[in-house]
Amino acid sequence: MTITEILAELKTYSSESVKKIFLKHGAKEPFYGVKVEDLKKIVKKVKKNYALSLELYNTGNSDAMYLAGLIADEQQMTKKDLQHWAKNGYWYMISEFTVAWIAAESKYGHELALEWIDAKEENIACSGWSTYSNLLTLTPDDQLDKAELKKLLKRIEKELPTERNRVKHTMNMFVISVGGYVPDLTTMAIETGKRIGKVTINMGDTACKTPYIPEYIEKMLQRGSAGKKKKTVRC
After folding, report:
1. What's the pLDDT band for 205 if we cut at 50, 70, 90?
2. Is 96 inside any structural domain?
3. What is the spatial distance between Cα 54 and Cα 145, in angstroms, rounded to a whole number?
4. Which residues of 177-199 are buried (b: 16+ CB within 10 A; e: fewer)?
5. Enclosing domain of residue 22
6. CA distances (Å), 221 to each of 130, 179, 180, 187, 230, in order?
7. Distance from C-alpha of 109 to C-alpha of 186, rounded to nearest angstrom
8. Which of 69, 79, 117, 180 lies at 20 to 30 Å from 85 by C-alpha?
9. Domain total for the chain?
10. Is 128 within a domain?
């Protein structure tokens, strides 16, 4: 499929109700409002396609940008590509999902996560914390830098209260990822979460809330999903 054909198909999946929801969460025109299940119909046709993913992302159309992440070839993505994606990930479904997924699955994940978490731009900092969170779900424990993770937990405890809106959320989710995917640090993550307390951020005109760290980790432990690594983080 060509990009013209894909955009035409995306338009046929347009949903006004989905569009209204996405607009409340931060998406901007022009875009169609396509459900992820419909995006995956296109994924089945094109599979992984590096060149096409770059074209789709560059349209600036939120639906196309999200689709780009579903078909991106992480092995071919360059650091320059990922930097470009992070810079232009203007709302959280792109910055915290699309960008973070592909960065984490690429060979530049750890390097870029550490670089991005210090970014002045809120969307890029969010991509950084989300990328590292995803790395924790993909990387075997013996390949993780536990000392670095401990330092980041302490940093989050200190900095989260005064951080920018979405950065607070991604920091909160990072602590949950440490607690849920790194068994050696589960207790530390839970205790960190207790000291941080419940995190409240502005989610706009939505009912979304940032989960309370200790409760979320405990639920992961109870359902037996804690510590289980994933092969991919895209969904």
Report:
1. confident
2. no
3. 32
4. bbbbbbeebbebbbebbeebeeb
5. 1-73
6. 21, 9, 7, 11, 16
7. 22
8. 180
9. 2
10. yes
Count of beta carbons in the 10 Å neighbourhood of residue 208: 10
What is the rounded CA–CA span in Å between residue 166 and residue 173? 11
Average pLDDT over residues 101-122: 98
* Claim: this prediction has a pTM higher than 0.85: yes
Q: Do 40 and 112 belong to one domain?
A: no
CA gap 168, 210 in Å, rounded: 9
- Same domain flag for 165 and 233: yes
Which residue type is seen at 226?
Answer: A
Residue with tokens 């979304």: 208
Question: Using an 8 Å Cβ cutoff, are 34 and 18 in contact?
Answer: yes
Q: Identify which of 49, 50, 45, 33 has the alpha carbon closest to the alpha carbon of residue 5.
A: 45
Note whether 116 and 60 are same-domain residues. Answer: no
Please tell me the total number of residues recorded for the chain in this structure: 235
Distance CA(185)–CA(197), nearest Å, equals 18
Answer yes or no: are the C-beta atoms of 22 and 4 closer than 8 Å: no
**Are 158 and 219 in the same domain?**
yes
What does the pLDDT read at residue 204? 84
